Amino acid sequence: MVAAHAWDLRGAQSLGLSTAYVPRPAGDPPTASDRFDVHAADLSDLADRLRQK
Predict the structure, then answer these.
(1) Are 14 and 31 in contact (CB under 8 A)?
(2) Residue 50: helix, strand or coil by DSSP?
(3) Model-level pTM?
(4) pLDDT tens digits, 15-44
(5) Contact yes or no for 39/19 (Cβ under 8 A)
(6) Residue 28 and residue 5: Cα distance in Å, rounded?
(7) For residues 5, 37, 17 and 49, what is the CA-based torsion angle, rounded to 10 degrees?
């Protein structure tokens, strides 16, 4: 699950999905206790990180 809203990613995690946070100006940033699988700077960065896996 890719999202700019941490609450979306928390929900996805609760269902066992892998998560990727990509910040956006109107997003909901992660808290210090959030542990998402990937934190990417933008969608291009996310694509690069996924290619490396």
Answers:
(1) no
(2) helix
(3) 0.90
(4) 999 999 999 998 899 999 999 999 999 999
(5) no
(6) 4
(7) 100
pLDDT of residue 3: 97
Predicted local confidence at residue 53, as pLDDT: 77
Residue 52 amino acid letter: Q
Nearest to 46 by CA among 2, 6, 7, 15: 2
Q: So where are the chain's domains?
A: 2-29+36-52
Tokens (6 digits) for 20: 């990727």
Could you count the other beta carbons within 10 Å of the beta carbon of residue 26?
A: 6
| 45: DSSP letter | H
Quickly tell me which residue has 């990613």 as its tokens. 9
